[in-house]
Amino acid sequence: MLKQSLQYKLLQKLSPQQIQLMKLIQLPTQAFEQRLKQELEENPALENGKEKIEELGNNENDDNYDDDGNENISAEDINIDEYLSDDEIPMYKTQANNYSSDDDDKQVPYASGTSFTQYLKNQMSTYRLTDDEEIITDFLIGSIDGSGYIRRELLDILDDLAFTQNVYTSEEEISRLLKLVQQLDPAGVGARDLKECLLIQLHRKKDKPSRELAIGILTEGFELFAKKHYKKLIQKFHITEDELKEAISEIEKLNPKPGGSYVSNNKIAEQIVPDFTIRIIEGELDLTLNSRNAPELHISREYNEMLEGYKNSKDKSKSQKDAVLFIKQKLDGAKWFIDAIKQRQQTLLLNMNAIMQHQKEYFLTGDERKLKPMILKDIADVIDMDVSTVSRVANSKFVTTPYGTKLIKEFFSESMKNDQGEDVSTREIKNILETVVSEENKRKPLTDDKLSALLKEKGYPIARRTVAKYREQLDIPVARLRKEI
């Protein structure tokens, strides 16, 4: 038997305005300008800039105008509900306005230039191929990733050709056509691993002893080369250290990611636009928000005049009521957007000011050793906001300082105690670690144990595994891979 019951649940949901504000806060300046442009195009009730009145007439001293002759119009001054009967509920009030914060607006970027795959297919069109060969080579080219590699087994490609393209062939035939694809530019494209990629590039170079030795090293001693066992390579190939240096120099000139060179050449460079500026004026820090983050927006006067027309109209037709509902939605949207922008400006300045005050010594001197330990919660507690809000500000915003343009999240770091019991920033320790590694003897690189001992001598008692963690964060390889001849 079907039973019916009532359940009460307490749920926390963000309002549409809060969701809009959170999305605006996380946008950097350029993305914010695009969002503003989109809103202006979609909402005719929202206008940019100050609106000038052509003829003020007797309204110059009217309270409805400001000193510049601009009409003071706001969404609060417009009461739409008086145009609607009590039994009519606007549709927008019955619709669910909430959604997941993960449902970010997805926009398809415009393509620029020829894609990497099409670039390869255009080259392949110069070969005379049968219909089946053309299908197979197109399939192989389509299997090439952004780095220029085919990372699938030929047997898998063989099965896919049979099932998806209705082409039945052999592994030998696919291998033969793969050799053809590997002749395309950029050199090394279509390789199945790094070793094959480097060998393809070497075979295209001019003949000389160092090239032949480099081919031999990759063919017969790739593992020794990858692990930098140089002494074993010298013994295996019966060569001198200078000959090995020349061969390694040939290999180092090769491109391990041939596809990346094409992608980077066709990618539009993004210009960093700082969101804040910090200057030192008479020994004090001065913080300003990029003016592009503070646009002047107002409600369209035409919409106000339309409502005045409906108000003075005696006949309230169905079409007029529909128009009023439409205007209500657009005016609400415009008001919410203007309020969200104002709150965004206040939130950005509040966060950045707290960060600036916390790192005041650094901003006054530019000495990274003056950077204090600072985590998101430190700033959140000062400004009485959620940690997620601080994170949105820090992750994608830049600030121009007297010492260059910096990503704000770079000022955040955890703390560690030095030998004197003082809290120091982990970034300071990382900078020292980078300096020590850059100055080490590359013929005998320092192990993590030795790096830990050196840092202890400098007053930073950290364990070997902590050194390993910082080294990985700085993209510094282990000692064996830093070794040079």
How do the helices and strands line up, and which of them pair or pack?
Elements: H1 16-25, H2 29-42, E1 46-48, H3 91-94, H4 116-124, H5 131-142, H6 154-164, H7 171-181, H8 194-203, H9 209-220, H10 222-226, H11 230-237, H12 241-252, H13 258-266, E2 276-281, E3 284-289, E4 297-299, H14 301-312, H15 318-358, H16 360-365, H17 376-383, H18 387-396, E5 398-401, E6 404-407, E7 415-417, E8 423-425, H19 426-438, H20 448-457, H21 464-473
Parallel strand pairs: 2-5
Antiparallel strand pairs: 1-4, 2-3, 5-6, 7-8
Helix pairs in contact: 1-15, 4-5, 5-7, 8-9, 9-12, 15-17, 17-18, 20-21
Model description:
The chain has 21 helices and eight strands. The chain has 485 residues and is an alpha+beta fold. Among the domains are: 194-254; 419-482, Arc Repressor Mutant, subunit A (Orthogonal Bundle), CATH 1.10.10.60. A hairpin with a 2-residue loop joins strand 2 (276-281) and strand 3 (284-289). It is flat. The N and C termini lie far apart (83 Å).
